[in-house]
Known about the structure:
Pfam family, one: HNH
Protein name: HNH nuclease domain-containing protein
InterPro entries: HNH, HNH_nuc, NA-targeting_endonuclease
Number of strands: 6
GO molecular function, one term: endonuclease activity
Organism: Tumebacillus flagellatus
Oligomer: single chain
Strand order of the largest sheet: 1-2
Amino acid sequence: MKQVTRTDAPHPLNCxxxxxxxxxxxxxxxxxxxxxxxxxxxxxxxxxSGHHCAYCGKKAKVEVDHFFPKNKRAAPYLAYCWENLIPAxxxxxxxxxxxxxxxxxGKRIIESCAEGVVPHDLLYEKSTIMEIASNDRLLDPTxxxxxxxxxxxxxxxxxxSHTKIGEITKERFFGEAFERNLEKLSHLAKKLxxxxxxxxxLNPIFDLYxxxxxxxxxxxxxxxxxAEGRMR
Length: 232
């Protein structure tokens, strides 16, 4: 899972007055779907993550994932909250679907700029909300330290979870298909090391390859194994 440093919100999500007007006009003509205003936001998220999915780490055309979903049962009044938006590939966005912690179920959470627009239970302050949901939420790679919850086990082609958050995240994103792909990447990286393909030659390939995040991790793993005489 790719650690991502949160950047400043792009326009128009950096303007409380503009966002308040969005929340006053939240739904489309059906009254069920939050209006999309994503183009500039999607571009900013993609830049923020280096054009990688923050969940699986693949280089991809990212989509706007709402960490706390924008549907009516979850957190529609965080739909334009920059800190609630995650860059995700299509597969991870679909895999995550409308995951919402039970600890927050039934609570209306709003951004402070929407105060007075709708009644609410909680004003959004990220640290507070994440603490309330600390036992039943997913890992947010722009907020949590990934390594405290999940570490990649290169020997066994999987993630090891260290917390309940890590366990829930592993179950949601990193199942059998993911582990099979890791095994293939491991074999490829091992062959590259055995053929003495150096990292300076590989860097341009890493930048192009969709699984660069994991291929690089396995290359480094096998390079060290080889250097210490453990590669067979």
